[in-house]
Amino acid sequence: MSNKILIVADYLNGELNQSTARAVTCAQQMTPTAIDVLVLCDDGANIAAQAAKLDGVTKVLQADNAANAHPMAATLTPQIVAAAQSGEYSHVLGPNTTYGKDLMPRVAAKLGVAMITDIMAVHSAHEFDRPIYAGNAVITVKAPEDQTLVASVRCASYPAAAEGGNAEIETLSLDAELPTHTRFVNLEQAKSDRPDLQTAPKVVSGGRGVGSEENFKVIYDFADKIGAGVGASRAAVDAGFVPNDMQVGQTGKIISPELYMCFGISGAIQHLAGIKDAGTIVAINKDPEAPIFEVADIGLVGDLFTIIPELDAAVS
Amino acid sequence: MKVLVSVKRAIDYNVRIQIKPDGSGVVENGVKHSMNPFDEIAVEQAMRWKEAGTAEEVVAVTIGPEAAKEQLRSALAFGCDRAIHVKTDEPVQPLTAARVFEAIAKKEDPKVFLMGKQAIDDDSNQTGQMTSALLEWPQATFASEIELDGDTAKVTREIDAGLETLDIDLPGVITADLRLNEPRYLKLPDIMKAKKKPIEDTSLDELGVERAAMLETVKTTAPPQRESGEMVESVDALVSKLKEKGLL
């Protein structure tokens, strides 16, 4: 049986999201005969060009439509279903970003097939590992081979595909009736010059121990010093220190930076689920009994407000 | 306005999950179960609409074994008017659950179908989206704020890039994220009152639901554990370790 894989590209502000490149790496492990990337945008030329560079990509399908100016599951789904059926794909994959989480189940339901959420390991083209119970257990699941497989890829489990390719870009006109019952109003985007939390090789994170929104400045300043993205625990988000899109953990972002440094984070299971794939975890906490030390590669007990200035001085 | 809200019985979020030694699943017997926390947030939202006079009737629905009645009773204690129990001892995966909810929604004709964004047992995060797809309704997932306005709703969604607002026609499916609200604590008189509220029993067969093809679970294992590393005594020691690893 041939495994022809379609990956739905995630993007933001006209740039391909790195999650797409991670999904390509996952797809390469499914003994594919082809990996095509579908770009659904209003003007997807730049995104398609970026996808065409990814190693392993066979073809990029660019389907521009004014209705895709702001990607919404309800309008994208009929287009993906049309592309999946006309291209006779055996697999339709998306990243497990909020974009993919929102979209892929709708696609699966429209195709009338089961879906696998959060592929973290590939055993064969139809057998995968995925986390359950906030990552406290892993199940191996087998999908029916006689139907299209729809799945989301747990991005933290895969490195991004390298850029060395030069795939063909095909413009596609998809014949699908699009609903008008869902309308985009606006997107409040946190403006930041810092590296993106989900793709940054280094992330500095603060928790309840930081104490206040004002105090978080020390976290931002240190992150800027070492060129890191900034994250936070759910406790810090709930306390209003930082906006919700900075939350790292099972219900926030699941990340896999090379270096994760967390300050004043005790290490609730919920948070640990978001950092399990980090390369090196460094924990700084006042409480020597904090559970974060059980998973940290390097731990230092102490007050973050005295340690950060020392760190600042040491890396200057 | 009528609101439908789904609730799922799941192992309580405070329980430390134990994996059966033979890899056939997680230990569920004798383990505390409660309402999936995201569903509690959905129920709380429905209650706030009811208290504000926006919702006239709120109906809770669950799919599961007899024991799931406990969670329906909790939903009724929150203030739901009545409940529907789709009884089954079979495992029900998201697409089949969505077909059940599609059938219930067609019967009940709600204006809003509220769900939790995901259940904390299988973490699938699929059923809300699938239900709205089958009904051809709009969906607004990961809601942190909902503003109802006649036949439409403005829903603020927590997405990776920030906060997105969608304007959807009703009826629609809305799934609750963490920060939509903080569910109330149930009081004893409400729990007592809930015992008198009606629960209607039905089944997949009665609803004419065709089971979807299943994912087969081959085995359940413990996740790879991170070993705890070493403690350092000073910032200098920390910095030199990180420099050794080429991380600073």
From TrEMBL, chain A:
What's a Pfam family in this record?
Answer: ETF_alpha
Q: What InterPro entries does the entry give? A: DHS-like_NAD/FAD-binding_dom, ETF_a/b_N, ETF_a/FixB, ETF_alpha_N, ETF_asu_C, Rossmann-like_a/b/a_fold
Q: What family does the database annotate? A: Belongs to the ETF alpha-subunit/FixB family.
All copies of the Electron transfer flavoprotein alpha/beta-subunit N-terminal domain together span 5-188
Which species? Salinisphaera dokdonensis CL-ES53
PANTHER family, per the entry? ELECTRON TRANSFER FLAVOPROTEIN ALPHA (PTHR43153), ELECTRON TRANSFER FLAVOPROTEIN SUBUNIT ALPHA, MITOCHONDRIAL (PTHR43153:SF1)
Keyword Acyltransferase among record annotations: no
Lineage, uppermost ranks = Bacteria, Pseudomonadati, Pseudomonadota, Gammaproteobacteria, Salinisphaerales
* Record keyword Electron transport present: yes
Superkingdom as given in the UniProt entry: Bacteria
Which keywords does this Swiss-Prot/TrEMBL entry list?
Answer: Electron transport, Transport
> What name does the UniProt record give this protein?
Electron transfer flavoprotein alpha subunit
UniProtKB/TrEMBL annotation, chain B:
What's in the keyword line of the UniProt record? Answer: Electron transport, Transport
The chain's coiled-coil residues are none
Q: Which domain of life is it from?
A: Bacteria
- Show the CDD domains listed in the entry: ETF_beta (cd01714)
Q: Which InterPro entries match?
A: ETF_a/b_N, ETF_b, ETF_beta_N, Rossmann-like_a/b/a_fold
Residue ranges annotated as transmembrane are none
The segment(s) forming the Electron transfer flavoprotein alpha/beta-subunit N-terminal domain are 23-211
Q: Establish whether keyword Transport is in the entry.
A: yes
Q: Which family does it belong to?
A: Belongs to the ETF beta-subunit/FixA family.
Q: How is this protein named in the record?
A: Electron transfer flavoprotein subunit beta
Lineage, highest ranks first: Bacteria, Pseudomonadati, Pseudomonadota, Gammaproteobacteria, Salinisphaerales
